[in-house]
TrEMBL record:
Its EC number is 3.6.4.13. The chain crosses the membrane at residues 553-572. It holds the Pfam family DEAD. Residues 79-90 have a biased composition (Low complexity). The Q motif is unique to and characteristic of the DEAD box family of RNA helicases and controls ATP binding and hydrolysis. Residues 325-508 form the Helicase ATP-binding domain. Residues 79-98, 116-143 are annotated as: Disordered. InterPro entries: DEAD/DEAH_box_helicase_dom, Helicase_ATP-bd, Helicase_C-like, P-loop_NTPase, RNA_helicase_DEAD_Q_motif. Residues 294-322 form the DEAD-box RNA helicase Q domain. PANTHER family: RNA HELICASE (PTHR24031). Belongs to the DEAD box helicase family. This is ATP-dependent RNA helicase. CDD domains: SF2_C_DEAD.
Length: 763
């Protein structure tokens, strides 16, 4: 086959495959494809395969040409031309046959000074200062100098890979960052599939990442890469839970490796501890303040950022900032645990901004401006808050922009905003971010340049509710990046899962400290146990008492679900309290307005669902009331953490029904005291009952359905459906319903409540 034909064929191949995959992936086809790939990954896999094939064909073409050229040169040296023997050479478009072409090239390369380009074994170039024969245009495929140089470059990069494979096969020592990720994953593969003692042959898990090198290797290997991908990237995160560990009896070799990884982890912790103790001691010295003696201007932070910090009143670092900032600025991967309201946001925003500033200084001329930093937040309000905080720190950095991608806004408008404004830093919620990744290929191209990934409230994002989305997102960003994970709570199983996002040599910063509690000493915690029928009365009474005592009050009342929140809000509003509501059923514009208003206000009560429980920085909240059990211990801590921020005082009250008291076991290590019920004033009882009566039936019914759904999902209660139905009926009475509202048959079936006494089904 002639070279031009070959090239033509190889060029049309990717197009063909692309079209094929597009036909398959567009127009409402299945969302997932073989190997558990989503349509986006599936399309990209085909594109990569096609690119790979094209590269291979061109490489072969080059090699054939080189071989012919060498043969010709050798023949010339031996005094005869071998080109006569070449078959299949025909005159090209320019009138020169490939035979003539080879002959002419051989002549050129035999000129003095060009010998090193064709020596027998393609040895090293002796001198890089030799000029290329001036009469060869640079675009010619047969520029041997270029070929040799390319070869050297590829040898170089191969050597890099060899280091890596050498490590991944044989070594267990800490090597470069790239290797770290793989070793970690290797450990997990072994864990899942029992493959030998931590040494997984040539292990490199394919991921359809934008890291060209990785994908190349993954595709080339062709050894069941897809399966491994499924097991090791997304799927690994998904499957890796505590139960899995419990179900599979560990093999002795696995145990050994677990131990060694534990030992490594222990050493890392010890290394960090000294500096942390220092920081914590400093905190004790400045009792009541979260600030340390360290100043921001002692760090490698750009003067413009320092100027913005000063303007915002940030001069000294907080404890967590001191513990984590240096490593973060150095580009290391970190997992950071620090109490609520201690300045974690600035601890990751500053390094993110510095990474953008550094990247901007390198003067790269990308056609599509890349998104350099991606911050993922579990809620929309937190995303907006983080973007606002980043903007404060970017005040003097012209041309650097922060954008948000959150649900509840119009997709097309988002897209326009992202295209028309600078966006080096993107703060997003997982669902909307994934929408853009899956539906806008241009957006994914922008993510190819990503340098930093940040997960705020990391434990929540790695929880089952978000994990799938996070896996998909991580599959679409480069592996070579800095990852920073922050939260006030990091349970052990989440810490394990988080390792999959972090490099092996990441640093775990824990300013809370082993065996120390995650709540603030200055926040007084108590709990009350009372039957459901009294909960609304009690909330009203507690609010009244607090308002009397604290003139500048600012209270948050957390309810279990959005619709129960709506009920509580309507009730308190009817009771003439100054209240606002915030939950997922409200339009985004309303939510943003309320959030801003509550941030700025005093003498206001916010009734909210868990959309406000994490990360929201409402200054000077004086009291947090939690009605009903939180979804878990962590959620209790985060809700409580809305008060007592920046070292201030605060108060927290948890209101439970008698059967909910079991939850106290989960937080028994926290300094929480039982309060005794004071008798309700007769006017309170009367007023609350009157207001409940006035509330619209539809609000009550929605509250009942939501309540049932919430408690049904809590394993400890949801298992015993008959008891659950009884409890739901008591809740019904507490909101003024005589009979429990009917459920749709389908809903009841889904919830496992069909045929349960006390559950009514819609006819
Ligand atoms: N170095 C600093 N100097 C002064 N104030 C600071 C500093 N760092 C942070 N703050 C302030 O501390 C408050 C809490 O910060 P931030 O919201 O980052 O806490 P957090 O640790 O992320 O809390 P959460 O766990 O609830 O997300 C904010 O009002 C912030 O402006």
């Amino acid at each position: 086959m002639s070279c031009s034909a070959l090239r033509h064929r190889s060029k049309s191949l990717p197009k063909l495959l692309c079209n094929l995959s597009l036909i398959r992936t567009m127009g409402g086809g299945p969302r997932t494809f073989a190997g558990g790939l989503n349509k986006w990954q599936y399309k990209r896999m085909h594109e990569k395969l096609a690119r790979e094939k094209e590269r291979r064909l061109l490489q072969q073409e080059k090699q054939i040409y080189q071989a012919r050229l060498r043969t010709e040169i050798r023949a010339k040296i031996a005094g005869k031309s071998s080109s006569d023997d070449f078959s299949g050479s025909s005159p090209g478009a320019g009138g020169m046959s490939s035979k003539d072409h080879i002959r002419a090239l051989a002549d050129r390369f035999m000129k003095e000074g060009a010998e090193d380009l064709w020596n027998e074994d393609d040895g090293p170039i002796r001198s890089r200062t030799h000029g290329r024969p001036s009469n060869i245009p640079p675009s010619r495929p047969l520029d041997l100098r270029k070929i040799v140089t390319e070869k050297r470059a590829s040898i170089g990069s191969f050597e890099h890979r060899r280091n890596y494979s050498k490590w991944s096969r044989n070594s267990s020592s800490d090597e470069d960052d790239d290797d770290s990720v793989v070793r970690l994953e290797g450990g997990l593969l072994k864990k899942f599939h029992g493959k030998g003692g931590g040494r997984v042959e040539g292990l490199r898990f394919p991921r359809f990442s934008l890291d060209e090198e990785d994908s190349e290797k993954d595709m080339k290997r062709g050894d069941g890469g897809l399966d491994r991908k499924k097991m090791m990237s997304g799927a690994a995160l998904r499957n890796y839970d505590v139960k899995m560990d419990k179900r599979t009896p560990p093999r002795p070799d696995m145990e050994e490796s677990d131990l060694s990884s534990d030992i490594r982890e222990f050493h890392r912790d010890m290394r960090n501890r000294a500096s942390l103790e220092n920081a914590v001691n400093q905190q004790e010295v400045h009792e009541g303040s979260i600030l340390t003696q360290k100043r921001f201007d002692e760090y490698n932070i750009s003067p413009l950022t320092i100027k913005a910090l000063n303007l915002a009143g940030y001069v000294n670092l907080t404890v967590v900032q001191e513990a984590a900032l240096l490593e973060c600025l150095e580009g290391k991967d970190v997992l950071v645990k620090a109490k609520t309201g201690t300045g974690k946001s600035a601890a990751f925003l500053l390094p993110a901004i510095e990474a953008v500033v550094r990247a901007s200084n390198t003067n790269s001329t990308n056609r599509v401006p890349p998104i350099l930093v991606l911050i993922i937040s579990p809620t929309r309000e937190l995303a907006i808050q983080l973007a606002a905080e980043a903007n404060v720190l970017l005040r003097y950095h012209d041309g650097v922009g922060v954008q948000t991608l959150i649900g509840g806004t119009r997709f097309k408008l988002d897209q326009k905003r992202l295209e028309e404004n600078p966006c080096q830093i993107l703060v997003a919620t997982p669902g909307r971010l994934l929408d853009h990744i899956e539906n806008k290929s241009g957006f994914s191209v922008r993510l190819m340049g990503l340098k930093t990934l940040i997960l705020d409230e990391a434990d929540h994002l790695l929880d089952l509710g978000f994990r799938k989305d996070i896996e998909k997102i991580v599959d679409c960003i480069p592996r070579q990046r800095q990852s920073m994970l922050f939260s006030a709570t990091i349970p052990k199983e989440v810490r394990r899962i988080s390792q999959l996002l972090l490099k092996r040599d990441h640093i775990f910063v824990d300013t809370v400290g082993l065996g120390h509690i995650e709540t603030h000493d200055k926040v007084v915690q108590s709990y009350l146990v009372a039957p459901h029928e009294l909960h609304f009365h009690l909330v009203y009474q507690l609010l009244n008492e607090h308002i009397m005592k604290v003139p500048d009050y600012k209270v948050i009342v957390f309810c279990t679900t959005a619709m129960v929140t709506a009920f509580m809000y309507v009730l308190l509003r009817d009771l003439k309290m100054n209240v606002r509501e915030m939950h997922s059923r409200k339009p985004q514009l309303y939510r943003t307005r309320i959030s801003d208003e509550f941030r700025e206000s005093k003498c206001l009560t916010l009734v909210t669902s868990d959309v406000s429980s994490r990360g929201m920085n409402y200054p000077d909240v004086t009291l947090v009331i939690q009605v009903g059990i939180p979804s878990d211990r962590e959620q209790y801590i985060h809700r409580l953490g809305r008060t007592g921020r920046e070292g201030k005082d605060g108060k927290g009250i948890l209101l439970l029904a008698p059967w909910e008291e079991y939850f106290m076991n989960e937080i028994k290590d926290l300094p929480i005291e039982r309060s005794h019920l004071t008798e309700l004033g007769s006017d309170i009882k009367h007023k609350v009952e009157q207001s409940i009566e006035k509330i619209d039936l539809s609000i009550k019914e929605a509250a009942y359905h939501a309540w049932l759904g919430y408690y049904n999902s809590i394993a400890d209660i949801g298992r015993d459906k008959t008891t659950l139905a009884e409890l739901a009926n008591r809740f019904c009475q507490s909101i003024g319903l005589d009979r429990s509202p009917a459920l749709f048959r389908k809903t009841a079936l889904k919830m496992g409540l069909k045929g349960i006494p006390g559950i009514n089904i819609r006819k």
